[in-house]
Amino acid sequence: IFFRECFSGCRPMSSAPKSAPKPALDRPQPKTEPTVEELQEMYDGDDFVLGIDEAGRGPVLGPMVYGCAFCRLRDWDRVKALGVADSKKMTEANRDKVAAKIRASEFCEFITVSLHARDISAWMQQRGGDTTLNTVSHDCAIYLIDSVLQATGGPCSMADTDQKVAWRHHPTLIAQNAGRLAAEGFSEWKAPPGRGRLRAVFVDTVGTSSSYQLFLKKFFPFLHVRVESKADDTYAIVGAASIMAKTRRDAAITQWRFEEPGLQAALGTAWGTGYPSEADTQKWLPPARGRGV
Length: 293
Known about the structure:
Elements: H1 36-42, E1 48-55, E2 63-72, H2 76-80, H3 92-104, E3 109-116, H4 117-126, H5 133-152, H6 173-176, E4 198-204, H7 209-219, E5 224-228, H8 231-234, H9 236-254, H10 263-267, H11 279-290
Parallel strand pairs: 1-4, 4-5
Antiparallel strand pairs: 1-2, 2-3
Helix pairs in contact: 3-9
């Protein structure tokens, strides 16, 4: 969070010398977290790693979908072999094919949470103006990590007892509305009793990667956390999360139906991708606004 102090009027100059600006290297920096190969050497093969990515950021139509995928350390190469990658660089047919493989696999699990534009807009207006799109994204990440921690047995050791509930003191928008948010691929899965703990989280960045990484470490100090730009290209498990989020959003847009009688026929379905910068969406919006959409 950045603060700006504004002053008006005249103030006497202080005779004390001004302190030099704090060098960037002296500011809090996230520590270097282990690589996947190092994690595989550090922990049991039954332990888990988690990847997080989103699709549809800032939509005017359809949801923003946050997704996570997770697998055991010993299954990392099997996830790579599914053909996962940055979903934005894949054709729709290829994304659907890989998503079907992920759904059918016994070693790669996932969760998706769909947030509609109306929900995002409402949240951004409710909390005194302090909720941004980044806030919503951060809340999604916390919710997803918490969900996987619960499924895989919580923090890594009993030494973390005092930290177990730290993240639960953060009243996430997602947790408060979880009952009506869409989720798939998770409720029927649970980790084998007594085997495996979540050890590491890889996240495609939202905002500045270093500050986001420190933010997540504050809530989950017992986990290894890596937040990087293009993580969906670098880490297979983030690529899997990206694909599941993107295919979920594509399906929502394709199957979109208005509740109001006659509105679908009057406006047509050529709304494009639902992103405000996309040409078809821009063309579709003016008549839609005229009908109160």
